[in-house]
Every structure is written in C-alpha cells, then in structure tokens.
Design goal:
- This protein has 229 residues and is of the alpha+beta class.
- The protein has a single domain, classed as NADH Oxidase (3-Layer(aba) Sandwich).
- It is built from seven helices and nine strands; from the N terminus they run βααβββαβααβαβββα.
- Strands 1, 2, 3, 4, 5, 6 and 9 form a seven-stranded antiparallel β-sheet that branches. Strands 7-8 form a two-stranded antiparallel ribbon.
- Strand 2 and strand 3 form a beta hairpin.
- Helix 2 packs across helix 5.
- The longest helix is centred in the middle third of the chain and has 31 residues.
C-alpha cells in the first residue's frame, strides 16, 4: 500500500478566504487579511501541517448497475461509480489528511477565547486539504502514465449515487490506519481535516473541474464554499 508523505503545501490567503465563505468580490477588512497572513506564517513555522496520503489501486473484476467488484472479492457500492467510470480498468481508493496538529491548535485557540484565530486556522486547514488533493492525484497520475493509463477526477462519498456509508469501506480498502486516519461511530473522520475519494484509471478517463461539480450540486445557490471558476 503506497503512502505519500513528502508533500509541500503552499497556501494563499484567497484560498483561506474562500473557505471562510468570502468569494471573488467580497470585501475583507485589512486586519483580517493581516491576521490570516500571520497565522499562515505560524502554521509554517510550527509545522502544524503533516500531510499524508494512503492509497491502493485495485483491478476491476466486474461492474453492475449498483456496484463495482474489485479483485480479491472486494467491492464498492453505489450506482454513481459504474455510471461515470464505465471505461475504467482499475480503481484507486485514496485517503488524505493533514494530520491532527492543526485541529489541536484550533481547539487551543478556542479554549483560550481566541475564537477568530480558531476560525481562521480552521479555514486554513480546509484550504490545506483542498491543496493536498491535486498533489495526491498528480502523484498517482504520474505512476500510471507509464502503463498508458490516465486518471479520472475524484468522486467522494456523499455525492448522489455514492453512499456516505461507504466511508468505512474506503478506509479499509486504502488501509487508512497507516496514516492515522479512522472513523468515529457516527462516521466522522479523525483527524477531521481528512478526506476519502475514489478515482477511475484506464486508457482514456473523463475529467471535470471542481466548478463543474459545484454547478451540479443541490446546494449551488447557497453554499459559501462553492467554486465558480
């Protein structure tokens, strides 16, 4: 099971602001921008981000309308995957995290009454996960390209046709414990700044942008974090 740890995350204030619900034309007070810059410097200096990615690539043994069967008698449930990955030869199950350090610092800020710092740091954590995903995908894409394969864009549990309950299955398939990621009884990922996803692998795979995903989402009119370009 491959694990990627040598990942450099470079975060920008605009990415953090989007994760705070500020979009393109939103006006942000200078003191907020200054505080974000200060916190970003602290994050870098204190090594609060510990990015890690665990993934496993499985041969596809068969497809039905409601599931994809994998080698070794394993399977992933949900009609979405078979519908959008009909050309896939393999699936990669991916778990990514920035580690527990940042959210511990968020808790520390909040417990000391520094709620604004805690909120902004939490947004930095979300932006860090957003930044980690494309780097993980590039690493996998580089690995499969030698076989003449491409990767699709990622699909995450909770999307229509991909049950959120598949989280438990994905963590097991990717051996998420190797990077310290687990689920609570209620299905919350620990560390919370973690994510799970599946990508298709094959000779010619379909890709889409995050903006396209947001345009199709049922929350597209109200979501403060939506991507528009």
């Amino acid at each position: 099971m491959p694990v990627i740890r040598d990942i450099l995350l470079s975060l920008k204030s605009r990415e953090v602001l989007r994760r705070q619900g500020f979009r393109g034309g939103s006006r942000v007070r200078p003191e907020i921008k200054s505080l974000i810059t200060e916190i970003l410097a602290t994050v870098k200096k204190t090594h609060l981000l510990e990015p890690a990615v665990a993934y496993e690539i499985y041969l596809i043994a068969g497809m039905s309308p409601d599931r994809i069967s994998l080698e070794g008698g394993k399977a992933i449930e949900g009609p979405l995957l078979a519908a959008i990955f009909p050309e896939a030869k393999e699936l990669a199950v991916i778990i990514a995290t920035i580690g527990p350090g940042l959210e511990k610092q968020v808790t520390d800020y909040t417990s000391r009454g520094q709620h604004l710092r805690g909120t902004l740091l939490d947004g930095i954590g979300s932006a860090a996960v957003d930044s980690l995903i494309p780097q993980a995908l590039k690493s996998i894409a580089d690995g499969v390209s030698s076989r003449g394969y491409e990767i699709s864009s990622p699909v995450v549990p909770g999307m229509p046709g991909f049950p959120l309950t598949e989280q438990w299955n994905l963590l097991e398939l990717a051996k998420a414990k190797e990077i310290g990621v687990s689920l609570t009884a209620s299905g919350v990922m620990v560390p919370q700044k973690s994510t799970s996803m599946v990508i298709g692998i094959g000779p010619k795979m379909t890709r889409w942008t995050q903006a396209e995903v947001c345009r199709r989402c049922s929350l597209k009119e109200t979501c403060p974090y939506r991507v528009t370009e």
